[in-house]
Amino acid sequence: MFVLPEGLPLELTPLAFLVGKWEGTGVISYKQNPDDETPLEFEFKQRVEFAHDGSNCLTYISSAELIGNPGNALPSEIGYWRIARPADAADNGPAFIVGQGEPSLKTHEDLEKLLHTKTLRNCGMQRAASTFLSRFSIRVAQQNFITAK
Length: 149
Hints:
Layout: E1 20-30, E2 40-52, E3 58-66, E4 73-81, H1 108-115, H2 118-121, H3 125-135, E5 139-147
Antiparallel strand pairs: 1-2, 1-5, 2-3, 3-4
């Protein structure tokens, strides 16, 4: 049975399954030139950790390196994931300005209504990932993630 992480804000419940440490291996495969018959392929391992601090976003840290090539780290990332939604008066920011008022998301019904709006359906992760991969002409041939606790 899946248990929601303690203290996770309501609006992050659709992303709750990501919270934790993940690692796995994959293959980067691409052609340097369109005329090449055989693509270059590199096996890599990746570690990703998603965490939350009670705010309206998850933090993530990702690092990767080529397998069989010690010390050859691939670019790492640090960032935030959250549900795309209009700003609330209750939201903190910019900078250290404290939010005022009541948040618009109070119940699971409010969240469901937000998740089914046209704006959110049009900005999915699949679209962003496919844009990124086609832009850099990198095809991830295999990526198997397993939980590491």
